[in-house]
From TrEMBL:
<dbReference type="Pfam" id="PF00005">
    <property type="entry name" value="ABC_tran"/>
</dbReference>
<protein>
    <submittedName>
        <fullName>ABC transporter ATP-binding protein</fullName>
    </submittedName>
</protein>
<dbReference type="InterPro" id="IPR015854">
    <property type="entry name" value="ABC_transpr_LolD-like"/>
</dbReference>
<keyword id="KW-0547">Nucleotide-binding</keyword>
<dbReference type="GO" id="GO:1902495">
    <property type="term" value="C:transmembrane transporter complex"/>
</dbReference>
<comment type="similarity">
    <text>Belongs to the ABC transporter superfamily. Macrolide exporter (TC 3.A.1.122) family.</text>
</comment>
<dbReference type="InterPro" id="IPR017871">
    <property type="entry name" value="ABC_transporter-like_CS"/>
</dbReference>
<feature type="domain" description="ABC transporter">
    <location>
        <begin position="5"/>
        <end position="229"/>
    </location>
</feature>
<keyword id="KW-0067">ATP-binding</keyword>
<dbReference type="InterPro" id="IPR003593">
    <property type="entry name" value="AAA+_ATPase"/>
</dbReference>
<dbReference type="InterPro" id="IPR003439">
    <property type="entry name" value="ABC_transporter-like_ATP-bd"/>
</dbReference>
<dbReference type="GO" id="GO:0005524">
    <property type="term" value="F:ATP binding"/>
</dbReference>
<keyword id="KW-0813">Transport</keyword>
<dbReference type="GO" id="GO:0022857">
    <property type="term" value="F:transmembrane transporter activity"/>
</dbReference>
<dbReference type="GO" id="GO:0005886">
    <property type="term" value="C:plasma membrane"/>
</dbReference>
<dbReference type="InterPro" id="IPR017911">
    <property type="entry name" value="MacB-like_ATP-bd"/>
</dbReference>
<dbReference type="GO" id="GO:0016887">
    <property type="term" value="F:ATP hydrolysis activity"/>
</dbReference>
């Protein structure tokens, strides 16, 4: 299977006052296209830093990040912003929905960066909401939806522009167990039935069971990578 993400000798260091904090140390990693990867590890292991680097939200201190043949580590801030808008869908723990907008208008937000007209944006948002099981909730605002429903809206927003892959940072961290399982089943569906590559940070071993692979980090280094039987 072709690689979607190829990472070579990746380092990330932060400067905090006089102190240098090394978060990632020479990481090498391949993520195949069409995979559903769970990134695991203790707090401070570098999971979210790695996720942000793959998603183009941050840049490495050194090393290579190649995604579908493109070296994103060489891109300027403007190039990265443009690349993200075309290639990455983001799902965060706390939904990040605009409270004054309806579900449909929240889903439409990424499409405002495209050349699509209003009618087509509306249609695409309706299709995305239908895909996540919220076709009848498009006119509701976030405060009229449950936590699980809000996360479904966030997933619809992440997929509405048909990105190359999804980045999910603790997508079930703020949900009860039943809602969490429904969200994980939805992500699994997007991976299996719609071919979306998904890279998910999670602390929850039960959440990781929905992935096809788990990658364990500790102190900025890859300590284990395993395929899960489904």
């Amino acid at each position: 299977m072709a690689s979607l993400v190829s990472i070579r000798n990746l380092h990330k260091t932060y400067q905090r006052g006089p102190e240098k904090i090394d978060v990632l140390h020479g990481l090498d990693l391949e993520i195949p296209k069409g995979d559903f990867v769970a990134l695991m590890g203790p707090s401070g292991s570098g999971k979210t830093t790695l996720l942000n680097l793959i998603g183009g939200l941050d840049t490495p201190t050194s090393g290579e990040i190649e995604i579908e043949g493109e070296r994103i580590d060489r891109m300027s801030a403007g190039q990265l912003s443009n690349w993200r808008s075309h290639h990455v869908g983001f799902v965060f723990q706390f939904y990040n929905l605009m409270p004054m907008l309806t579900a449909q208008k929240n889903v439409e937000l990424p499409l405002l960066l495209t050349k699509l007209g209003g009618a087509q944006r509306k249609r695409n948002a309706e299709i995305a909401l239908q895909l996540v099981g919220l076709a009848d909730r498009g006119s509701h605002r976030p405060n009229e939806l449950s936590g699980g429903q809000q996360q479904r809206v966030a997933i619809a927003r992440a997929i509405v522009s048909d990105p190359t892959f999804l980045i999910c940072d603790e997508p079930t961290g703020d949900l009860d167990r039943q809602s969490a399982e429904e969200i994980l089943q939805l992500l699994q569906l997007l991976n299996r039935e719609h071919g979306k590559t998904i890279i998910m940070v999670t602390h929850d071993p039960k959440a990781a069971e929905y992935a096809t692979h788990t990658i364990h980090l500790d102190k900025g280094e890859l300590v284990e990578s395993s395929a899960l039987a489904h």
